[in-house]
Amino acid sequence: MQRRFFLFLLAACGMVSGAVAAEPLIRKEWQVDGVTREALLHIPATAHEVAAPVVFAFHGHGGRMASAVRSFSMHTLWPEALVVYMQGLNTPGRLTDPEGKKPGWQHAAGDQGDRDLKFFDAVLASLKADYRVDTRRIYSMGHSNGGGFTYLLWAERGDVFAALAPSAAPATRSLSKLKPKPLMHLAGENDPLVKFEWQQATINFVRKLNQCGEGMTWDQDANCTLYPSAIGTPVVTALHPGGHEFLKDGPPLIVKFFKQHAKKE
């Protein structure tokens, strides 16, 4: 029964289709402080021989790793990358779900015993042990609560990453720990839940941190603004007139941005 259900899940999520038909996502578990954690992974066929980029992807509050697969689809756009769609645990929300009946991610360092930071550490360590990881090209993205966790990873594990792409999230409680990194921030200008002005404050802070200049169109995309950086850590914003939803055209923009940035070692 469990196997039939999982095969149904694979089919429902479109995991065995198109360019990755020979490389379906696999479900993997880790034990973190005695708790079973899980993620869906796309493993390139060459990951044992060729150093692969790594993309961590985080669903929003109330989401699931399978819904992140559908929304983000990083593995279909960048099949050469190791892609990890991680699953959160039930978490009290800061704006919704105060009783914590739905899955999400810790909001700040120290919350929930740093369970999600430890989860990230465990996953990255296992990837490095099992595959060839290009340590110059490790990235994080996420939407809403997952975007906030991406900012938290930047603050607490920043040396790991080459670039980051949060969506619909501010970094209010993490700003003081951020160090210059290339950033793509996606946002709806009429977001009724995570106010755009909150996100704009974070963008402005990072632009100053990254020593960015005036904005210009990014790669002929009229919906994206590039703020060039004097220290090689540009900021790109991808704004849309909608609300809290994830930008439908966001995934290819994120992949393009990530491919432009590798960490200097």
Q: Could you tell me the number of beta strands? A: 12
How large is the share of residues in beta strands?
25-35%
What is the distance, rounded to the nearest whole angstrom, between the alpha carbons of the first and last residues? 48 Å
Provide the structure class. Answer: alpha/beta
Largest sheet: 10 strands, mixed
Helix content: 25-40%
Query: Average pLDDT across residues?
Result: 91
Indicate the multimeric state. single chain
Apparent shape:
globular
Cross-sheet strand order for the largest sheet: 1-2-4-3-7-8-9-12-11-10
Uncertain residue segments? 1-22
Radius of gyration: 17 Å
Tally of contiguous helical segments: 7
| SSE ordering | HEEEHHEEEHEHEEHEEEH
Describe the structure.
This protein is α/β, with parallel strands linked by helices. Helices cover 29% and strands 26% of the residues. The protein has seven helices and twelve strands. Strand 11 (221-227) and strand 12 form a beta hairpin. The longest helix has 16 residues, at 115-130. The protein is globular, with a radius of gyration of 17 Å. The chain starts with a helix and ends in a 6-residue tail after the last helix.
List keywords for this structure.
single chain; 265 residues; alpha/beta; two-stranded antiparallel sheet; 12 strands; disordered N terminus
